Amino acid sequence: MAMAKYLAVLFILAVLGFVCPGQAAISEPYYVNATWTDHSLQGLKTLVGEEFTMPFKIGVFDCGERSAYLEWLLQCHGFDAGFCMDGSGPWTVPAGAGYSTHIWVTAALYNDTTGVYTGRVYIETTSTPIQIIVWGDEDWDKYARLPDNEVYGMKNFLSIYDIMAGITPNTNDDDPVAVEESELDWWKFGTDLTRKPEQKKIRCELLPQPKGWGFRLFLPGSGSLPSGSSTVLSEFSVRPSSSGAWRIQWSQSQAISSQKIIG
């Protein structure tokens, strides 16, 4: 359902001319409110997708455009997202990228029920698949850097307007660096620029048995049944035991287990 809403939002924005392929200048309003009800790590992964539909190309569609697109996508769907920029490296970037300054994305996660902050991620947008870095990952220290000061450190920008103006939330930042719009203009290429995971529906089949009922779960399109259409994910049955209680028995990956259900 969330994915359907996401695609509907992109379609409406395209129809209304919010951002159009080939459009040279940033449109207003740039950030819009789109419904998204899962701001957890899994919700972010679902929204961001697996990889970009356009190939990485320096000066055309590189860390600037890719980061600007994901920052826009996340902000529009209620994530507290922003840009990170640093010039000291190293980063996990494509071979031959040759960056002296690199841009990536950060976003805060929270529980939609309680509103409690649950962590922060950093997103390396030049990777394929898109790399979402969480606390404990081996690349965490490459992206979760010290804030900017007079000598060195990562600059943070809270919006595309801030990064184009060189405005950071750090009041001690006396070395403003602005990024040209031409380095961020992802909207020239459309609105749906990442490939989402394929969604498959699980089918349940009822299997009559002498006592009780049997069920079989199938994942369509990934294997074969007698009909040649699905793969069995799990098979289980429910039947009364000698004590009168009902028992459920299931099999998966050739492992058989059973659990008593109080009846």
Task: Describe the 3D structure.
This protein has 263 residues and is of the alpha+beta class. It folds into 2 domains: 2-195; 203-261. 17% of the residues lie in helices and 28% in strands. It has 5 helices and 12 strands. The chain has helices spanning 2-15, 41-48, 63-76, 140-143, 160-165; strands at residues 51-52, 80-86, 102-110, 117-124, 131-133, 155-157, 194-195, 203-208, 213-220, 230-240, 246-252, 255-261. The protein is globular, with a radius of gyration of 24 Å. The protein starts with a helix and ends with a strand.
Which descriptors apply to this entry?
globular; 263 residues; 5-stranded antiparallel beta sheet; disordered C terminus; alpha+beta; 5 helices; single chain; disordered N terminus; 2 domains
Please, how many domains? 2
Percent helix range: 10-25%
| Sequence of strands across the biggest β-sheet | 5-4-3-2-6
Report the biggest beta sheet as strand number plus sense, adding barrel if it closes.
Answer: 5 strands, antiparallel
Q: Work out the strand percent.
A: 25-35%
The radius of gyration is 24 Å
Structural class: alpha+beta
Question: Can you tell me the residue ranges where pLDDT is under 50 for at least 5 consecutive residues?
Answer: 1-20, 222-234, 252-263
Order of helices and strands: HHEHEEEEHEHEEEEEE
Number of helices: 5
Mean pLDDT: 75
Number of strands: 12
The backbone outline, from C-alpha atoms, is globular
Distance between the termini: 35 Å
